[in-house]
Amino acid sequence: MSIMKNSIKGYALGVIAAASYGTNPLFAIPLYEAGLGPDSVLFLRYLVALPVLAAMILLRGRSFKVEPRQILTLVVLGVLVAVSSLTLFTSYNYMDVGIASTILFVYPIMVAVIMAAVYKEKAGWMTILCIALATVGIGLLMGNPGGGFVSLAGTLLVVISALTYAIYIVAVNKTSLARVATLTVTFYVLLFGLGLFLARLLYAGEPLFPALPDWKLWGCVVGLAIFPTALSFGCTNGAIQSIGSTPTAILGAFEPVTAVIIGVLAFGEVLTPRIICGLLLIIVAVIFVIAGPGISAPLTHVRKMFPRLRRRISKDS
Description:
single chain
C-alpha cells in the first residue's frame, strides 16, 4: 500500500512540476519586453527562488545538511541545470520559441537511452509509445503552419539544453542525492546554478539588479521564481525519487499543455483543431504513463489468447 501511495504521489508531483514549468511564458515574456536579457532574467529567477525554498525547508522541518561528498555532485547538477536554462533561453535568439520547445522534447528520449545504456534499464513498448505520442502531440502544439526558420546554432543550443537536463534527471535518481530531502536538493542545485549567471553578468559588466519601470514586473520576477522554478524543480526532484527518471521525463510533456492554455487565456492565441489534437495526444500519453502497468497486463492476456499468431510472428522474425 505504501508503494502505491508513493507512486501516486510521484505521478502527481510529475504533473504539477510540468504544469508549473509551463507558466514560464506568463512571467518571462513581460520581462523580455522590458529589455532584460536571458542572464538577467535567470539570475533574478534563481535568486528570488532561494529564500522561498529556504522558507519551505524551515517550515517543513527539513535540514540544510548534506554530506561533504555530496557537495561536488550538487555543484555539477547546479551547473547542468543552469546550462540547460541558459542554452534554451539563448536559442530563442536563433529560432522561434515554438520550434525550440519542440526540439527540446528529445530529452525524454535521451533519458531513456541513458538509463538503458548506462543502467541497463529496458525501455518497454509502453514507454516508447508514450514518448512517440507525446512527441507527435507537442509537434502539433508547436508546429508553425507557415513554416519557421531553424538554424544550426539554435538547434545545437536546444540539443545541449535537452542533454544537460536529461543528465540532471538521471543523476538525481542514481546518485546518493536520491536519499536527500527533495527541497534540500533543489535549494543547493539552484544556489550553485546561480553562480553561472552571476559570473556571466559580472564578466559582461551588466547590472545585477536592473531598474524595472513597473512594480508589476517585480511581480513577474516573484512569479517566475515561485512557480516554474521553486515549485517546478522541487516537484520534479520529488517525482524522480518516487517513480524514476524516465516516467518523470515523459510527464514533462504536460508542460506545453499549460503553456498553450496560458497562451489562449492570457495572450489571446487561437485554439485550433490542430492544437486540440496535440493536447489530446499528450493527455493520452500522460494517462498511459500513469496507468502503464494496468494497461500492459490486460494486453498481455489478449496476446496469450492467440498463441498461433505469436508463433507465426516469432517465425517471421
